Amino acid sequence: MEHRKLIALSVKCNECSRGWSASAEEFEKLDLKCQDPECNNTFSVYEGIRNSLKDKEEQFMPNTLLANDMYNGTVSLKMGYSKYIELPQGIQKVFKVQLIPMGPFQIGAVDITANGFNVLTSFIEGSEEPKLGEEIMSFYIVNAKKDDYEEPWLHLLSSSLDHLRSKEYLTSIILSEIALESFIDKTISNEYLRIGLDEDSISRLMVSANIPTKVNPLMYNLFGFKLSSFKETHRNWQERVLIWRNEIAHGSKAKATSEEAQLSFDTVVDAIFQLIESIERSRKN
Ligand SMILES: [Zn+2]
User: Fold this and answer.
1) Which of 144, 185, 244, 276 is 20 to 30 A from 102, alpha carbon to alpha carbon?
2) What's the CA-to-centroid distance between 23 and ligand 1, angstroms?
3) pLDDT tens digit string along 202-233?
């Protein structure tokens, strides 16, 4: 079983829609050049992350948010029989299993856990080959996460995407908004710590200030920009996501649509990565 370590976030070009897992050097440089030689578009690494996260199309390469371990290999099977594929130890979550049959048969994975999965094969209707019990081969790719990236907001964002995909829109909206709140609290707290405020005062401030105060005046006070610097993102957040979140939390919103959940996820992705990019750029200047 081959193992490759990827960066937990992939990037996507906004001109030609080519996507890839950016390297550590690309992350350092902040500005990227599209990998497609015919495209030549340049964009920031955070813009690329936002494009990639907001792209909900099912791609051959799955959205690698948090799935920064990739395993692949070939497995030999007996036609019509199941086989258990054991994964290496230490995996916390499997995001996706892809099986590519090397021959004219159907194949699927069931019982997927962090320990492994079962592979089942079946015949294609009308096809004579392969026969029952005959040896066959399949290629597999597993996208998973081991024990790193312990950032609560990244996990909340990842769970929001899971809920969006499984059509649990109310929970997805709540998780998107909490991901933003968690990111803001962490960012503000770290900065106050860095400039010398004590932990007790910071935690009192985090409890007493509401989220609109945190994203605008407190962010501005610490970094010189605020969420409302990004007009469209701020409008969508303030007039929609935050209102829906409060209505859901207080029980007055009992249904949500796919569009509402997507807009919430996209808005939070834009908000978080626009803020991270501004912080990074202000530190480099
Ligand atoms: Zn491109």
Assistant:
1) 144
2) 17
3) 999 999 999 999 999 999 999 999 999 999 99
Closest Cα to residue 143, out of 285, 4, 282, 284?
4
pLDDT in tens, 139-159: 999 989 887 677 899 889 988
Measure 251 CA to ligand 1 centroid, in angstroms: 44
Nearest to 192 by CA among 150, 217, 221, 151: 221
DSSP three-state, residue 116: strand
47 CA to middle of ligand 1, Å?
Answer: 12
Band of pLDDT at residue 58, cut at 50, 70 and 90: low
Q: Is the pLDDT of residue 235 over 70?
A: yes
Q: What is the pLDDT of residue 60?
A: 47
**Helix/strand/coil for 119:** strand
CA of 43 to the centre of ligand 1 (A): 9
Say how many Å lie between the CA of residue 52 and the centre of ligand 1.
12
Residues of the chain within CATH 2.60.40.2080 domain(s) are 69-145
Residue 64 has pLDDT above 70, yes or no: no
Residue ranges of the chain that CATH labels 1.20.120: 152-284
231: CA distance to ligand 1 center in Å? 26
- Give phi and psi for 52, each to the nearest 5: -70, -45
Could you please state the CATH topology (level 3) that the domain comprising 69-145 is classified under.
Immunoglobulin-like (2.60.40)
C-alpha of residue 276 to centroid of ligand 1, in Å: 23
What is the CATH code of the structural domain delimited by 152-284? 1.20.120
Distance from the alpha carbon of residue 19 to the mean position of ligand 1, in angstroms = 8
Mean per-residue pLDDT of the chain: 91
| Residue with more model confidence, 160 or 59 | 160
